[in-house]
């Protein structure tokens, strides 16, 4: 294990760097709980209701309940299949925009955000809103 571990202090945050897969496996086996938690950050606390959403909440009973709800209700096979038509439509719209603008510079990053945002709004409102906004 000598030379496989390095402790860095990035600002005030101690960061452990493990350069060996064997050592990393052993650490995760014996100290899983320590590394599975998230840091308590001020910006997510302000923006996300004291970090109570699934992305920023601390590991524990509350997070396990959130994960269970997400897996059962949002990521079930039936639910994922129900999104197929919407995903196909959104990809078709992006490909159509690319085809219309062939030969001209086009920002893929902006189109990716339009596509993913439109997909989310479609699931909420039942129709595509962002493409209508992007076209005007």
Explained architecture:
With 136 residues, this protein is mainly alpha-helical. The chain has three domains: 1-36, no CATH class; 39-80, no CATH class; 83-135. It is built from eight helices and two strands, in the order ββαααααααα. It has helices spanning 21-30, 32-36, 42-47, 61-73, 77-82, 84-100, 108-125, 130-135, and strands at 5-10, 13-18. A two-stranded antiparallel sheet has the order 1-2. A hairpin with a 2-residue loop joins strand 1 (5-10) and strand 2 (13-18). The longest helix is centred in the last third of the chain and has 18 residues, at 108-125. The termini are far apart.
Write the layout of secondary structure elements.
Layout: E1 5-10, E2 13-18, H1 21-30, H2 32-36, H3 42-47, H4 61-73, H5 77-82, H6 84-100, H7 108-125, H8 130-135
Antiparallel strand pairs: 1-2
Helix pairs in contact: 6-7
The 3D shape can be described as: extended
Q: How do the helices and strands follow one another from N- to C-terminus? A: EEHHHHHHHH
According to DSSP, the number of beta strands is 2
What summary fits the major beta sheet? 2 strands, antiparallel
Determine the strand fraction and express it as a percent band: 5-15%
Q: Please identify the structural class as seen in this structure.
A: mainly alpha
Radius of gyration: 21 Å
Low-confidence stretches: 128-136
Q: In angstroms, what separates the terminal alpha carbons?
A: 61 Å
SS summary, helix count: 8
Helix content: 55-70%
Strand arrangement across the biggest beta sheet: 1-2
Q: State the domain count.
A: 3
Q: Residue-averaged pLDDT, rounded? A: 76
